[in-house]
Specification:
Blueprint lengths: L2 H21 L1 H7 L14 E4 L3 E2 L7 H15 L6 E2 L2 H5 L8 H8 L3 E10 L2 E10 L5 E10 L3 H16 L16 H16 L2 H17 L4 H13 L12 H18 L4 H13 L3 H14 L4 H13 L3 H14 L4 H13 L3 H15 L3 H14 L2 H14 L3
Helix pairs in contact: 1-15, 3-6, 3-7, 7-8, 7-9, 8-9, 9-10, 9-11, 10-11, 11-12, 11-13, 12-13, 13-14, 14-15, 15-16, 15-17, 16-17, 17-18
Amino acid sequence: DTGRKLNIVTIGMLVAVLAVVAIDRLYFHDQHGPGTPQAAAPVEKSIAVLAFEDLSPAGDQAYFAEGLSEELLNVLAQVGDLQVAGRTSSFAFKGQNKDLREIGELLNVAHILEGSVRRSGDRIRVTAQLIKASDGFHLFSQTYDRELDDVFAVQDEIAQEITNALLSEIVGTEPMATSRTDTEAYELYLLARQRIHTRDIYRMREANNMLERVLDIDPLYAPALAQKALVTYLMSDNMGAYGDIPSAEALPVSMRMVDQALALDDTLAEGYAIKGLLTRSSGRPEDALEPLEKALAINPTMTNAGNWLGLAYYTLGRRSEARAILEEVVKRDPTYGPAFNNLVFDHIWRREFDAANALIERVTRIVGENVEVLQARANEAAVRGESAKAIRLFRKAIAENPN
């Protein structure tokens, strides 16, 4: 998740790039005629992993429940032939109580995994249900009672159940194992990752401290090293970041940490994605392509990697490839704001207003008139020359998110 501020910054960067496109937009209009994307029927081997509910007595385990959901999503993304909806869109339904058939339609998936976590002391109870979205039929429902130090085994068991239910005809398909570490370190890692998702500078500083504690416990835990690299960069003064650490100091430190993470685990998708971000931020977009492409090859649901790769392609003038990447990202994760807005921008600069509006309406059905939707509508109004409408929408967006 690149966060709201990075969304606004990347859109600003894209404006500069697409200003050139505007000069020659008749060429693009001829090559890509306007159209409205039609939602295809979901393929049978497709799934959305909703954020698990926290049913713990104290109600303080949301980070743990979301972390379990995200780990399951990442494991399932490794399974060949299985299309997995992106995290941002899957988690957007948390607390909404929407009908599962509607969720399946909006995310264009045939199956939905939902569940809950109840923690009491050192024991956890995880309940998982795999449901057919079209009719609500339960393919399986299972409860797992475990000691907390066995949480990774729970993740593996649930992922294996889903694999067996969905992919029994694919001989030899196995989910990849989840990363292991000390239980205390893993809990801190989940808390830190949750804070990094907010892109709030104060919460990211908390995350940074948590990750330092994780690495004190387990210096070789590759996911924590990758997230430490990311949060160090996000606390810098680089464009698209949020802090005041000079980027000349932050970038080399971040790069060393992500390289160490990848040396420990050369299958770590988030490590390659973060390396691509750091490389592009260092002014070398051509060198960012390989790690970003590798991140997506390992985990196609990694929407931030797709958005960063699309921007790298745009910077290099490879506009068709950028467009294709953004379309794939938005197909899997329509509510992921940066890619959604970048694709809307590409549509409207090509004068594909019907396609832009179809995409905006789809996202509005999921999240309502949030900041990203307001920004998209404002950008469309600006390109159409409806300045008063654009100003009103931009002001409303800024009022909701001054950052």
